[in-house]
Write a structure and sequence with these properties.
The chain has 123 residues and is an alpha+beta fold. It has a domain of 62 residues. It is 49% helix and 13% strand. A three-stranded antiparallel β-sheet has the order 1-2-3, with no helix packed on it.
Length: 123
């Protein structure tokens, strides 16, 4: 046998689908009679709100017992050094790999500095 909370959930979903269908029917009726759309009737709005509440209630209470979040039990055993240790943010592939300085002599025997950037020499 299905529990009462699951029955409330399914009834709420069914009622919500019916409210959506009623809203679509109302819009098509207004188009056929060439009237302006000023909003949904009160009964369709109330059916949608009540069925949404029923669905939320049913799913929350049929999910089971919630567990408390106890962060102090886990964090109390760790030291400050381990809390600030984030190895996923370590970067080892940077700086020196993108720029390599070259010191070359030109025809006047003076030192010229070049940068090696991605397989190209740049002044």
């Amino acid at each position: 046998m299905i529990s009462l909370n699951k029955q409330i959930f399914f009834l709420g979903i069914l009622s919500l689908v019916h409210a959506a269908y009623s809203a679509a029917q109302h819009r098509s009726y207004l188009r056929i009679t060439e009237q302006t759309f000023d909003g949904l009737p009160f009964d369709i709005l109330m059916q949608g709100i009540v069925s949404l509440g029923m669905s939320m209630y049913g799913i929350l209470y049929s999910a089971g017992d919630f567990k408390e979040i106890r962060a102090m039990e886990d964090l109390g055993l760790k030291t400050l050094e381990t809390l600030h240790n984030t190895p996923s943010f370590y970067i080892f592939n940077h700086r020196g790999k993108s720029r390599n300085w070259l010191n070359l002599k030109n025809s006047k025997n003076t030192t010229v500095h070049y940068i090696w950037v991605k397989n190209h020499i740049v002044l």
